[in-house]
Amino acid sequence: MERRNRNIWIAVIVVIVLGCCCVAAIAAGALGWFVTRVDRAQVDPEILVLFPRTSEQLEETFQVGESPYLEIRNFAGEITVRPGQDNVIHVVATKGASKTSSLDRITVSMSEQGDRVVIRTKKANNLGSGHVNLDITAPPGTEMDVHTGAGSLKFRDMTGSIRANSGAGEIEARGAAGPVRLGVGAGSIRYEGTPAGHCSFETGAGDIRLRLPERPDVRVDLGTGLGTIDIDYDVDGSTSPRDVTGVIGAGDAASIYAHTGLGNISVRP
Hints:
By secondary structure, the protein is of the alpha/beta class. Helix content is 16%, strand content 52%. Among the domains are: 1-48; 152-268, no CATH class.
C-alpha cells in the first residue's frame, strides 16, 4: 500500500512540474510577442502611439510699431511669450503629430496688419492627436489676446494688457504690470505682478495663486465653490473661508476678481 501511495505522489508531482513548465513556456512566448511588438512600435508610428512623436518647425519675424498687438488662436499646444527686441515680434511654431504624414494636415498661418500680428492654427477634422507649440518674443508692452483649446500658457515680464484663455492647462503670468484677464476651464492660474485696471482670474477647477506688491491698493472679489481662501493682507470688507470682498489699501489702483469652482485661492506678497 505504501509503495502504491508513493507512486501516486510521484505521478502528482510530475504532473505539477509539467504544468509549471507549460505555464512558463506560454508566459515566455507571450513576453517575446510583446517585446517584438514594442520593438516594432519604435519604428512603426502606427503601433502603440499615445503621444505625438514627429515635429516640424516654422519661424517668422515681424516688424511692428509703437503699439504692437498679438492675437493667437491655437487649437492645442503650449504658448510662451517673453520680452524680445523692440519693434520686433519673433515666432517659432512647432507642429507635432503622431506621424510625419500628419504634419501636412496641421496648418499655421501668420499674418501682419500694421502693428497687429495674427497667428492661427488648424488641424484636419479626422486628425487624431496633434498640437502646435508657440515660442514668441515681443516688445514688453505688447497687447495680447491669446487662446488655446488645450495647453499651458506662460507670460514672462510682459507689461501690456493680457487676455488669455485655455480650455485645459495651467496659465502663468509673471512680471505682469497691466490689466489681465486669465481664464481656464480646468487648470490652475499663477500670477505675479503689479495689477492695473481690472484684473480677472477664473477657472472651473484649479487653484488660483496671486502674488502682489507689499502694499497694494486694490479692490478684491474672491470666491471659491469648494475650497478655501488664504489672504495675507488686511481687507476692509467682508471675509469668510470661501468669499472675500472689500478693499486692500486705498483700493484705487486696480480691481481683482478671482473665482474658482473647485480649488483654493491664495493672495500673498
